[in-house]
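Quick one, T. Sequence first:
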Amino acid sequence: MENTKVVIVGASHGGHESAIELLQKYSNVDVTIYEAGDFVSFMSCGMELFLEDQVTSQDDVRNFKPDDIIKMGGNIYNNHEVTAIDADKKQVTVKNVIDGTSEAVDYDKLILSSGVTPRSLSLPGNDLANIYEMRGYDWATKIKAAMNNDAIQNVVVIGSGYIGIEATEAFTKAGKQVTLLDSMDRPLATYLDPEMTKYIEKELEANGVKLGMGVNITSYQGENGTVTAVEADGKQFPADLVICATGVIPNTDWLKGTLNLDQRGFIETDPYLRTNLPDVYAIGDALKPYNIPANQQMPIALATTARREAQYVVDHLFENQAAVPFAGVVGSSALSVFNLKFAATGLNSMTAKRANVNAQTNFYQDYLRPAYVPVKNGNLPVYVTITYNPLNHQILGGSVMSPYDVTAQGNVLALATSKKLTLEDLASADFFFQPGFDRQWSLLNLAAQSALGWQRF
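C-alpha cells:
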C-alpha cells in the first residue's frame, strides 16, 4: 500500500509544525514542503535580535534547517513556488523560481501555510531607492547594512505596530535619528489601551524618537532616484531610509477563483480548518481562526496560532468524519520598548469594539512589591488592563507592563481568557506571595479586585 502524499505549501511556522507533527505521528506518509523563498526558514520575529547583534549568526535565526526535515524522512524544496491547485486531479502546480520550469505534483492531502506579505503604500515616489520592508532574510541583510552605513542618519519608520516599534528601537540604538509616523493616533494602538500607550509614547520620546501620530502620509520625496523625505500633512520628514511597516496582507492572490476567499483575501475555512476544496486545509496568517473571547473568526497573525492550527490539522487529518472543531486561540504577544516590557492577550477596548463585543476595560496601576521596598531595590511601577464582559464579568483579555519583566503574567491572563474565567475567579485566585517578587495579594489579584470596585489593598 502506497503512503499518503501530504503536500505542505510554505515552510514557516505552520508548515514546519505540520511536517514534524506528521513525521512524528504517522509512519505511512510522504511529506513534502514547497517554499518559494531561497532561505528556509528565516524567523522574522527574531529580526530585531539579529539587528542588535544578540544572536549567534543570521543563518541561525530560523525555524529549522532543511536537513532537520530530511533526517526525519520528509522532503523540502526551497525556491519552489506553488502557483495553482487542481482539485479534480488532486495536483498542485509547482514552479522552480530559479529556472522558471513547472511541474504537476500529486497530493492526497494538501496543507496551505502560504502566509502573508508586507503591505506597501501606493504613494508617489514608492519606487525610490532606500524604501525597505522589514520581513524575511533578504530584507534583514539589507537593513543590517543600512544600520552600519554612516551615510544613513535620518530614518523614517511608517507604522507603529510591533514591526515598526522593533525597527524604531533597533535604528535608535544604532545611533540614527528616527521618526515614527502612523495614521493611528497613538503607537501600538491595536495592541494596547490608551492608558498603556501613553507610557509607550513617553518611553519613545525619552529615547530620542520623534513621533508623528495621526498623520496622513501623502508621498515619498527623492533626489537622484533615492528617497530624501516622507511627506505627511504638508510636512516633510527627512529620510535617508524609510522602513515601511504598515501591516500585512494574505498571500492568496494565486488562490483567487479556486478557494473561497473573503473580501480582504483571507482563506475561508470551516470550524475544522477545511477549505471549500476536499482534502485541502489552511493554517497560519492567511486565514481567520476562531477567536475565543470574540466568539468569532478574526485575523491573528502569530506564530503561536499557526503552530496550534498545524497540530490540530495533523491530529485530525485522516478522520472520516470531523467531530472536534479547532478550539480557537486568544492571540497573545509580548514586546519590549526600550526599558518597558509588556504582554497582551485577547481583546482590548479597540478590538472589542471592532468585533462588536460588549466590553469594559479597567486600568490598574501599582508597585510590584510591598511599600517598604524602595524603588532603587527593584520595587518598580506596574500597569495592568483587564477587558471583561460587564454583564457576567467574563475576562476577555488584558495586558501587563512594567520596566520590570512581568510578561509572564500575560500568560496567566491568556489562560484566564481562554478558559473564560471571571473577574471574581482572578480576584481570589491562589497565587504565591514573597516580598522579593510581589505583593501580599498578587498583581493580577489586585487588578481584578480593582475592576470589581473592591477597596484598594
